[in-house]
Amino acid sequence: MSNRSMRKREAILQAATELFLTREYSGTSMEDIAVAAAVSKQTVYKHFSDKLTLFREVALGSVEHVSRDFQSQVASVAEAPDVPAALRDLARSYVNAVMNPVLLRRRQLVLREAGRFPDLARTYYDSGPRRTISVLSTAFARLAHRGEL
Fold first, then answer.
1. Does an H or E element contain 20, and which?
2. What is the structure's pLDDT at 5?
3. What is the pTM of this model?
4. Which of 67, 78, 103, 132 measures 20 to 30 Å from 123, CA to CA?
5. Which of 60, 91, 108 delimits the end of a domain?
6. Greater confidence, 56 or 68?
7. How many domains does the chain have?
8. What DSSP element (H or E) covers 102?
9. Which residues touch 145 (CB under 8 Å, ≥6 apart)?
């Protein structure tokens, strides 16, 4: 994907995020998104086959990436030589991740539309919170086994 195409895609995602948050899913059209992103409606459809696909991308876009990074840090805590320092760093990272404005807004979208799209809410939970809880549980069990907790 060219830089220009990536910029357009990002503009579409940003416009869609704003509109979905303010007008919700049912009050937002692909035409509205195209106008807000300053692209043609055809360009929106070139990047996203339909409104639901675009909505899913907006809602889930950064969850997996952030979760993967955090989960990697959690796994390293289980083997850290200085456990108290590693746990403090982990707590700071967690607060930064869950308070990230982009993630907060996307979480709002998922929560608002959970009744309409329960599969989306399930995917969000499975790809973020559920995985994080599992990785934390494994890391804490390892720390307990090492006698660090």
1. helix 3-23
2. 87
3. 0.75
4. 78
5. 60
6. 56
7. 2
8. helix 101-112
9. none
